[in-house]
Amino acid sequence: MGVEGKDKVRVLESGAHALSGQLGKTIQRLRKAYHLSLSELAEQSGVAKSIISQIERNETNPTLATIWRLSQALDVSIERVLSISEDEPFIDRTSRGDTPILLSDDGKVRLGIIGWIKTVEWLQWYDVHAEPGGVLESDAHQRGSIECLSVLEGEYEVEVAGVVQTAKAGETLRYRCDRPHIVRNVSDAPAHATMVCILKAAVME
To answer: Counting C-beta atoms within 10 Å of the first and last residue's C-beta, which end of the chain has fewer, N or C?
Structure first.
């Protein structure tokens, strides 16, 4: 049975509010997954910092053009940004095109963000591909955070606070990542690994 008049307006407004609320949460999770500040996302997207802040707090209904700019800056499809998680099936599939990619400063290490966007504030999961000699330098995460690097191909070296360990295919390195840390491909061929970062909320609380 359809609704008309004022009831229809209320239904539409309710739907728009729910969509914008989910959108704000999605934008915030993606921004944090990229370790971007509001200012940095504003610079990359061309959307004002104040507008992004209002979107994340569900205080405004952004235009489609604004959503598109944010999705481009966050390297995900606009369909993914607009999806409402409460209606998603229990089994979810993400395509390669929807997987955000981070690059190391030297451009030789690619991190595909394959973890669930809802867990990014306490659990992050990456698919790591590194060219020979590729180096990934990371700042300290929250105090108590742990990172696990499981090597699938090649050989990686991890350095934390002057301590260095290496691991080959089939081996895993677990290390404190609440201090600056470096991951290197020390093999003569491309290397592949998965990296899981467990942040403070899961480790200490």
So the answer is: N
